[in-house]
Amino acid sequence: MADVRDREISVEQDHLDRVYRRLEEKIDEAEFLMRDAAQRGQVGTPGALAERDAQVFRAGIHLNRLNNEFEDFLFGRVDLLPGKDGKKGPDGAFTSVEPAEDAVRADSTADIAETLHIGRIGVLDTDYAPLVIDWRAPAAAPFYRATPVDPGRVVRRRVIRSKGRQVLGVEDDLMRPETRAFLDGEQLAVVGDGALMAALGQARSHTMRDIVASIQAEQDQVIRAPAASVTLVEGGPGTGKTAVALHRAAYLLYQDRRRYAGGILIVSPTPLLVAYTEGVLPSLGEEGQVAIRAVGSLSDDAAGPEGATVYDTAAVARVKGSSRMLKVLRKAARGALELPPASAAPSGPDATEDEEEGQLTLGGFGAFDGPGTGTAGAPAASPTRLRVVAFGRRLELEADELDEIRRTALGGTAPVNLLRPRARRLLLDALWARSGAASRHSDAELAAELRSGFDEDITSEDAFQDFLNAWWPELTPRGVLAAMSDERRLGRWARRVFNHGEVRRVARSLRRLDAAGAGPVSVHDVAILDELQAVLGVPARPKQRREQGPLDHLTGLDELMPQREETQRERAERLAQERTEYAHVIVDEAQDLTPMQWRMIGRRGRHATWTIVGDPAQSSWPEQEEATAARDEALGGRPRRRFTLTVNYRNPAEIAELAARVLALAMPGAQSPRAVRSTGVEPRFAVAGKDLVDTVREEARRLLDRVEGTVGVVVAMDRRDEAVRLLKGLGERVAVLGSLEAKGLEYDATIVVSPAEIAGGTSRGEVIGGESPAGLRVLYVALTRATQQLTVVSGPRDRPDGNGVPTLLRAPGGAGSGAAADVRGG
Ligand SMILES: Nc1ncnc2c1ncn2[C@@H]1O[C@H](COP(=O)(O)OP(=O)(O)OP(=O)(O)O)[C@@H](O)[C@H]1O
């Protein structure tokens, strides 16, 4: 067997050597073209310039791609029977998916007609024969789609493992195990136990890997679905939704690079998931045109590149995310113009309540003053009288007249900041009327001339400009948000929309902002700020344009030029900042978006096609119907194509079975995905002794001994900071995170600390059975993060049974788990 393996490895090594020789030739060619183009640049005729541009563009593409030496550049191979109609496509491969009638003989023997190698980019030989097919090309589809049930032309699928230029191993899957197939007279060899299992068993690091070598058929259907309109993908934990979404971005760019030069936006729920996934696209050779952003960093108003650093408590988030907020914001945007004097200070919070209703910081991402420490407040009072001098006379408008003018100006729904010119005109009309000048001149032409002189006179007066700036200031989203921290004021704006308690909670949560709105904002504030930006509008200002060179007109050129000063990542970030709309929007963990967040994302994809992946069973947003309605509004009438992923590639069956118990509580009747493998290791139950932290620490050490990669410790959100502090020193392989941060992440092993606290949303109080369906869904997420081992640590709230199994995780019918339990005193 070792002989066969070595022989097969050396066959693939020969092929890889050939590919690299060809790549080197192509790099030489591209470099020659770049040099040549540079010389032509000295000839200044427009024709020569255009030719140079096009040449540089093509050479730039080559160089950029070829210089990226991918670790496992070549990763797959399929051996195929002849095609049904014998036709070949432009790349020299048979086009038919089905084999020829007589491809397999009566004695079950067959000859391989075609061998294709699959890699991260396509490479043609000098005679245009395909040395490597790009994984996204149609000819590569059989590599992903073939199954033993529906093999098409594929006899053997091989995954090739290499590092740099060296082939390290091969793993084969036979799609037609009953057929004896021959290649150049020799029977096809089969090596290894299949690539998927090899990939799934690997230790996890803190960054996600691409799955390009082992994409499964149902996933491939989604990745290659046509880009038109909306692709909706649902699937349970670990079914590869995030992986599929990322590979789809790369596929779409390959299919239609020009169209997606408009940018692809991937929206992720947390900065942690962004950090976890952002290496995948570069490993697929794509980076520049894709922006991966956390939902808390989408608006320009979120502070810093990492965006919002604070999570609101569930009660506050529920109000801020709701579409009811919209009405309030429209009122606030108008109301903020007429703010009462700043002395009407906000009613002060009392410290205990504040603590309960404050925010949970995402530790490690930034400081948080704590509620009540900032001074909430309003911009200076709006002036109540306008006094100017025109035609030698003093003219005045009093408070009630000014109010009337403001009301007239605000009629309709136009953005408040854009109504300032209208308000200015109405003021001038009123002053003109007050001057009585109009009635003194019957000649229309003369009156008009007089009027224009009058306007000029008044508007050049400092007093008028100062008045206008104070009476109709340009409002900023942050300024309005800060104004909402005054409870009485917010109560007015939210009358008949929010109840008392809701007003109080929201107002208090905004006390971190100063009067101008500076200070840390929460993830949910970001969607509010974005909405306010739309409601307020941005007055037109002369744009400062970047100087453009002729090459800028070639799509994507500067991203591909290797000698650029800005790195690709910097450019992507800059473009993401500048860009307000995208050609395709991919939403990951879509089940968690609030209506306000859907509106924010919708504004970025008004003309886009969409891919939306999610799992309703993992939603932490309680009002799912409201969110679905907001999603539908963002998507408009675009037709939708739906897919469901059914296989769990992350959790072994033992963990999936335990998680399914919580799913049954959270969403009775919902189907769990089928776990693709089992490890024989049952989840472990530990009951905390006197000190919960000691137990967790001990269990973490135990798991570090048992797995090679990462260990995740998931705690209730408001235990997070404390847990991070107390569990320091366990080393880089351990990550401590709050339940809401666990979204989308995975670890070799996880410790879930107190299921009852996680499901109840809080570690405070002794309420048992206070879990909401949303809380149970959060627990379901926590329980489905491990690829190998799971330990559940119970505290007193969990009411563990004699086997240490907490109430929420007991098998239906009351039987404990068959797991090895470790019960400690407590
Ligand atoms: N075809 C595949 N080959 C190898 N690994 C795979 C495959 N599909 C998924 N995986 C692995 O399974 C794990 C789960 O994938 P992913 O995170 O994309 O799932 P998900 O559906 O987004 O999960 P969740 O809903 O829990 O966030 C990842 O480690 C991923 O690499």
UniProtKB/TrEMBL annotation:
Biased composition (Low complexity): 339-349
Keywords on record: ATP-binding, Helicase, Hydrolase, Nucleotide-binding
Domain of life: Bacteria
UniProt region (Disordered), positions on chain: 339-381, 541-569, 793-826
Example of a GO biological process term: recombinational repair
One Pfam family per UniProt: UvrD-helicase
GO-annotated cellular components: cytosol
Gly residues: compositionally biased ranges: 361-375
An example molecular function term from Gene Ontology annotations: ATP binding
UniProt keyword annotation of Nucleotide-binding present: yes
PANTHER family on file: DNA 3'-5' HELICASE, UVRD / RECB / PCRA DNA HELICASE FAMILY MEMBER
Protein name: Helicase
Organism: Streptomyces tsukubensis
